[in-house]
């Protein structure tokens, strides 16, 4: 019986699973609704939320998505949120456009910063897709700034 189980795991590992932007947006939308339903006590999702999210992604995109893939992608989203949060808190040449949900960087700072941090370029001077949903799903403080 163990051999059969091993084979299943190995078969799973052979299949690469790639998250498209559309899939990621669907996941964030679903998980944001789970938060609003109270299914993330103590900043940690219930396993039933991961199972339900995997089912939604599987059906909507006609793929085989497992709960562990949801957990792994959520780690990627958390990592991105960490970078976004650090960049939002930077001073001297950095700013935040709350209407566009965009981290702004002055031209004099941009080139030097990107040379030292090339992976951060995708977060600078560009609208951050799904910012609100990311804040709900992985942000520690959803309410920030004036009037929050």
TrEMBL record:
It comes from the Eukaryota. Transmembrane segments: none annotated. Residues 18-113 form the Myb/SANT-like domain. Pfam families: Myb_DNA-bind_3 (PF12776). InterPro entries: Myb/SANT-like_dom. PANTHER family: EXPRESSED PROTEIN, L10-INTERACTING MYB DOMAIN-CONTAINING PROTEIN-LIKE. This is Myb/SANT-like domain-containing protein. The lineage of its organism: Eukaryota, Viridiplantae, Streptophyta, Embryophyta, Tracheophyta.
């Amino acid at each position: 019986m163990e051999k059969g189980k091993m084979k299943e795991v190995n078969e799973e590992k052979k299949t690469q699973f790639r998250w498209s932007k559309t899939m990621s947006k669907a996941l964030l939308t679903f998980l944001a609704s789970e938060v609003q339903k109270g299914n993330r006590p103590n900043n940690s999702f219930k396993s039933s939320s991961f199972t339900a999210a995997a089912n939604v992604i599987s059906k909507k995109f006609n793929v085989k998505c497992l709960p562990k893939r949801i957990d792994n992608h959520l780690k990627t989203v958390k990592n991105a949120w960490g970078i976004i949060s650090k960049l939002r808190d930077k001073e001297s040449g950095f700013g935040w456009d709350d209407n566009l949900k965009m981290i702004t960087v002055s031209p004099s700072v941009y080139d030097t910063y990107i040379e030292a941090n090339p992976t951060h370029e995708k977060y600078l001077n560009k609208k951050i897709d799904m910012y609100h949903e990311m804040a709900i799903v992985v942000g520690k403080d959803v309410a920030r700034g004036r009037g929050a």
